[in-house]
Give the backbone structure.
Amino acid sequence: MRHHTFVTAEQVEAFRAAIEPKPRTLVITHSSPDGDAFGSSFGLAESLRAAGLTVTTACVDPLPTRWQWSPRAEQYVQDFTPSDYELVIWTDCADYERTGFHHRYPQLAQLQSVNIDHHHKSNDHWATLNIVPENASSAAIIVAELLQLSALPVPPQAATALLLGMYTDTGDFQYAATPEIFAMASWLVEKGARLRQINDKSLQRYSFAQLKFWGKILENLTLTDENVAIAGVYTADYQSVGAEREDIGVLKNWLGSIQDADYSVLLSEDEAGNVKASLRTRRDDLDLQALAKDYGGGGHVKASGFSIPHSRLKREVQWKIIPQDPTDN
Ligand SMILES: [Mn+2]
């Protein structure tokens, strides 16, 4: 007996009806695909393929090599002909713009569509069928339950992708360690999910250029008198070592773990001429979301960010003249 934690019986019925005639299906996920974007879309696509549907996966950005651990995982297209498809399914996209395809393919909005997402506060329910529960920590766990309740086949590579999505969107199962998550993870492992397979190939692998870049960030990390750990990243810091700004990766989270600091601020220049800020803390009594809002940003209480357009970073070293300590010399 399966539980309806995220997906209602009516939604399962409607989804089954949508895929029953085996429509030519396009599965799209959001730009700059993270683990959940990839995991939810690839897991769904592989399940539907196993059920006999012809499925194309698409993303406006090329899939990062770290997610290309499985055959077909590399086959995410950036261009397609919308009229080739009868059904489009979006995963992990809060709105149509998030897909990055809205300008290029406005006619996609006319297709029969399914919107599977967990950003319930911002999702604008633009699809024919919207599966946007309020309590899901990832899009992947919604897809997993939908496949489970629809009695669709879940081959091992689909199970692995879905587990990857659940894992990455919960900060390695740290931010949402609920019975529902571990029950679903257990079911996916029964289906053949192997997190180790991805871990060894991508999650815990770092390029030489990335580590050299991190060295530069750590080198200029400072702790202010107000107990804020702050580091600035110039475009030259990553360009000079052959890295990209995105290679900051998990380092921005690690900075929030510094015991001596109340919170961390990582300021980085992007190549388009903006400065982006990532704020992190482990303290329970700080609200970094409110702090980021003051700068037009947002996020969560313990992890937030903002972006200042058309700006550069400038380092200022402050010199102070202070009275001589009489005990000194
Ligand atoms: Mn997500």
